[in-house]
Prior knowledge:
two-stranded antiparallel ribbon, 9-stranded mixed sheet, 13% helix, 18% strand, globular, alpha+beta
Amino acid sequence: MEDQRQRDEAGVRLGREEAAATDSGMVERAAPETAVFACAACGAALTGPLKRLSAVPEAPCHAWWETEERGPSPATVPSGCYAIETEPYGPPLAVAEAPGPVMPRRGTLHDTDGRPLVSQGPRGNIVINPDDSRGLTTRHASAACCGATPDGGLNQVCACGTLVATLCSDCCLPYELHLSPDHVRALPYRSPASDPAWRAGAASLPEAGAGVPPGAGRAAWRG
């Protein structure tokens, strides 16, 4: 585990050195092919290196009502990857002109008068597998059966106290973590194995992996 962290830190340093010669705003706007996401407030890494997907995958079909033990659905995004959500996600929720999904992969939601709701939340969330997150805890979560929902907005807090992400983990919902683009930074990651100086001093390290061990974040899926 320590070797993995040293490798990740080396990759982030190499990425920072490359980014130093470019406009920092461009780095923020253009999601790198491989990135480590960090808290914008304190700089703490919230993920290991993740590879970008061209789009958010469809949520896996999951018959949650037939399972013997309640728990999160299979993750929407494969471990070691991330994708950019192009549609509005999370609150505020407004009355929709016609029935439809309240937000991507969420299904329908109605107000107390039975009127369909639709998200008018932010676009551009970074969607990852919750098991790939590091150092996040649940600050609050909307009422749900046995997990967290995105209906109340940001519910995951960094160790520094900053709300940075929205966890969706209720048993009947897609299993996703949405990093807020306003509260995290994408740090370009270049494999340190591609750097000659790094190879000379770290030839004994194992090949770079996707990040934290699978399941490391699943223990905190409950809201």
